[in-house]
Amino acid sequence: MTDTVAALDGPVTDGEGAATRGRCVVVVLLCVASAGLLGGLFAAVLGSGGWNGLELAILAAYLAGLPWTLLGFWNGVIGFLVLRFAGDPVAVVNPAVRRAGAGDPIAARTALALAIRHEDVERAFRRVEVMLDSLDATGWGGAFTVHILSDSSRPDVVAEEAAALERLKRRVAHPERVFYRRRAANTGLKAGNVRDFAERACGTHDFMIVLDADSLMSGLAILRLVRVMQANPRLGILQSLPVGMPAGSAFARIFQFGMRAGMRVHTVGAAWWQGDSGPYWGHNAIIRLAPFVAQCRLPTVPGGPPLGGEVLSHDQVEAVLMRRAGFAVRVVPDEFGSWEENPPSLPEFVRRDLRWCQGNMQYVRLLRRLDLRPMGRFQLLNAVFMYLGAPLWMATVLMGLALAWMPAAGGGTSFPAGAALVLYAASMVLVFGSRLLGIADLLLRPAQRRRYGGAGRVAAGWAVETAFSMLLGPLMLVTHTVFLAGLLVGRRIVWEAPRRDSHAVSVAAAVRGLWPAMGFGAVLAAVLAWKAPWALPWAAPSLAAYALAVAFACWTADARAGRALERLGLCRIPEELAPEPELARLAGPAAAAPGAADWAMEGRHAGRTAS
To answer: Which domain holds residue 132?
Structure first.
């Protein structure tokens, strides 16, 4: 064992405290200055005819939601600047990575922990096989064990898992390194499943790598995480940057293209100022077991459901508890052998997002209970406002509609059209800034843009993704608002395995899920046409989203739409043109013999291990 509970004593000794505090000050000043500028413009437009109580309430709602949007924008700007001008961006935002050598021996014992419940069994076990063979191909497979942690209760799924386990053990080179455990009760959901395993593994393993059913990691990516943890004994959680796998549906294909464009600049920017208080997303990450078991036990949220009881969104809570214990939490903000799947349709995307929304809202109650560092407290608050921004925006719009019925205040000046235009343009930049900067960074890198099919394909994909986001965004704002209102009266969502394969969405199903957004759009259009027709062009993007909601949901889930985009090369990701061996093997037939993998040893990615 290379780690013990005794290592819990003492501070993180990475020497970056002062630099991180300085960076935090920079980000705060950027957000405050831009909030003041935009707030001033909004006030100039709103109060051009004088002020009343409703207008003051509109301004307050706007200002309350603005900082969180600004933070996302400045994360993107900072990330873009670091990527463009730093010689070694990873070292700038995460020096811990550079303390490990690409050829360091693996001395630690690491468990790969795959938590499943009622998942597509063959798909999940196939990923385990590919990861085991990829690890064996590096020559370090003996330092790892795989643990399939089942919380399934349906008899048919349990029987299928047992059969799949036998097939897996026949196909891998070292079946003695594969373990399966099933709990009788789903206590604590996934977090409870992982916690139960961590407590059992702590005496025999140093680290665990947490995997979801849709996770896939290369052997080299896994080794990289382990080596960084070995070289940094005060590092508690190290999160990789998972990217989407090639997808069949148009929804997943377009969504992950945009996410990939914006996620890296956003993550680099956030990592630049968050320092050793970085994110943990609950999968494709490595955890130091001793402090996790000793310090990261989740509290019970006070009150009854849906906001009380067991912690649902466990990952960020575990991250702030790890940091409170004196261990760093960091992210490796580059694309290197870590993949996940994205929802194949709008209904599945909504279901996943609302699960996160419900879990994040529990943080409001936890903030009053947990003794956290300032950054940890901020991160939980930031996770709350990821979703509270929607009702604040809706409140702004609804109060604006009410304002249309009120008589204009006297004594005002003429309408400041110039300020209104600048405010509108600035709002669009804030919303799309990170993705636009991600696309710009990609286009400025010849080798990278070729991986996506060339500059023309990248630009065309960006145009498609922008239209997609302009349709998706307004729908999600209404959906979040309605769901949050439902939480207040006891409504909740069931946390179950999602549908991961492409599937059709019927018109009836789309109407059932989207009628609140469609109804809101109809009311908004009618009121504007009656009371403020001059505002219709400004509202046109949102009105189009509400009017096309059903067509959008059905078309983006249609397999034919996905195939059409693929034929045109639109929203293509690099793995389509040159799939990594793990992805190619996952898409091909299962190995006929144990350890069958035509892969080179550890030098396979030697040119990218320091990227």
So the answer is: 1-404+414-504+558-585
